[in-house]
Amino acid sequence: MSDRISAEIWIGGQVSRTEICHEGEMDDPDGNAVLAQLMAEIERSGVSWEWGSRGIEMDTEEHLLECLENGHLHFMDDEARNGEFEDLENFCVQNGIPFNRRSATDGTYDPELVWFRADMNEPDCVGIDSDGNPVVKRLDVVGARNMLANMLDGVPKPTSDYFNSAGMVYPPLDDNRRAMLDRVLEMLNKACVTAPPLPRFEIVA
What is the pLDDT of residues 28-41, one digit of tens each? Predict the structure, then answer.
């Protein structure tokens, strides 16, 4: 059984009226254009433009553009399956359409922010709090701290001998400690990942 969790999605980027969508059929260019199929996926997904409602008609571009909010298409569902819009999100990924999706929690799943951009191979995600702010996992930070402590073990602390006119100069790191430092930075970058800005939604030829 799947859990029903409230979720919302923002869609941006340029969407073509004429470009054939991924795996579209060339014998029906109008019906298989990226824009037409995006509208169909939105309608099939059961999302709405407001909380407490379900389903929305996507017969015309005007209907689609009525869902713009601050430059992005914005849809929501109080009872999204597993807090996701699986088919809609997959369509966006296959056709390079950027989106952000935010899911709440029901006590089983942690709240999360998922995003995709046109230059990505697959979506990325980060845990969030109830206000939508990214949350860094304590274990990730502790792991980086412990590795950093091990790296610095045995390195002399800076003294006045390490000062010159340009500032403080530390003893050079050996190859092993340099590799550990690179790993610490990799761990912290992964723990502190943030979603890049979502481009504005635009319909193009």
Answer: 445 689 999 999 99
Helix, strand or coil for residue 174? coil
- Domain carrying residue 110: 4-132+194-204
Task: Look at strands 68-69 and 4-11 and give their pairing.
Answer: unpaired
Cβ(191)–Cβ(137) below 8 Å: yes
Write the burial class of residue 76 (CB in 10 Å: 0-12 exposed, 13-18 middle, 19+ buried): buried
How many structural domains compose the chain? Answer: 2
Give yes or no: residues 65 and 107 share one domain: yes
pLDDT in tens, 74-123: 999 999 999 999 999 999 999 999 999 999 987 777 899 999 999 999 99
- 0.70 cut: is pTM over it? yes
Half-sphere exposure of 141 (CA within 13 A, CB side): 6
Residue 28 CA to residue 124 CA, distance in Å, equals 33
Mean predicted confidence (pLDDT) in 134-158: 73
Do 19 and 105 fall within a single domain?
yes
DSSP secondary structure code for residue 162 in this structure: G
> Residue 41: CB partners within 8 Å, gap ≥ 6?
87, 88, 91
Asked whether residue 94 falls in the same domain as residue 42, the answer is: yes
